[in-house]
Putative DNA modification/repair radical SAM protein
Amino acid sequence: MDLGEKISILAGAAKYDASCASSGSSGRASGAADGGLGYREPAGICHSWTGDGRCISLLKVLYSNVCRYDCAYCVNRASADTKRVSFTSQELADLTIEFYRRNYIEGLFLSSGIFSDPDIVMEKLIETAKKLRTEHGYGGYIHMKIIPGTGDKMIREAGLWADRLSANIELPTDLSLKNLAPQKNGREILGAMEDVADTTAQYEEDRRRIRTTPDFAPSGQSTQLIVGASEENDRQIISLSGALYRKFGLRRVYYSAFTPVGVPGRGGIPDPRLPDIPGPPLVREHRLYQADWLLRFYHFSSEEILDGATPFLDKHLDPKTAWALKNLRRFPIEINRADYEELLRVPGIGATSARRIIEVRRSRSLSFDSLRRIGVVLKRARYFITVSGGFIDRPEDPGRIRRILSDSDGAGLQLPLFDF
Ligand code: SF4
């Protein structure tokens, strides 16, 4: 099989992993022939964010789509009727360098099916990264998956060559893992995250004493959760994410709307363990990302976002507005007096706007016009604030505010939202 066909199959097989957000790029790099090396879609070029917040293009590819495991939601599962193919470490390192030199990519997202013992698979991924770093002098970004079941020795080796590591938790409970990914073990996956967190802390500690201590996964670790393949509610998902951020210092949890994969052309016969849904629950995925922002940047706890009485996020309202409407007694807040934490709770005021408000307020009082200039979204904030005692609108009649601020069908939403 020629290399072009391998790339096409193994990049296509990698695209369901959301821990690197796909750009949906479909154009052709200038001068490249159809199906050739410069054709971006089949080659699996996606966009992701580095630890310092830069958006970069990655070659997102599997080392192999041969897999012993049979995760019901996966196109590469052992029982799927799909063409199987593997790279060699040399092929994949050479390919990455070729793409890098042509400026098609700034990094590599590397994962694999479990074609052998997990440590052996991990060793192949590490070998590829090592070749890139040592033989080609490659200094670009590498995001490497931790293969489920990999031992801690391999994990510690992987972090020396990769910028980011990720162990995919995939499903929110042990029961769902047992039903849909029976060969995976939730404890092992959490154990891998703990290993990464502990080793990172160890390297940081060492660096304080020995300046030449090498970097260990300097862009941290992330994980992916599949949404809609199992029965858990949003509250369970958000509680799990909150715990992962707290315990293991994850940089990101990615939410991936379950894509039915059993239809013809996407891996064969439908798996009876999976829900029969017409398409991926994209609005739910979007709301989970918004709730995740509340956890990471707005200092919300998972219990504040959802409780036993409302276990699902509102399809028609962003979670911050939904929280504000449930807690109207806390509003309005006075813009010229509120502290940073109070400002963060106002729909329409993001972290940047809140900081700017505090900054500007040191020299003068703010008006509604200055709020607009700072970037406050007054269309949302107007119901929840006063400015020097004055209102645009009052926090009364939550039903009316809800009608005005609702998305009609939750569709057409943009990601990510920094200022909601
Ligand atoms: S381990 Fe599961 S999710 Fe990963 S490639 Fe194999 S079948 Fe797919």
Notes: The first helix runs from residue 3 to 14. Residues 21-42, 263-267, 409-420 have pLDDT under 50 and may be disordered.
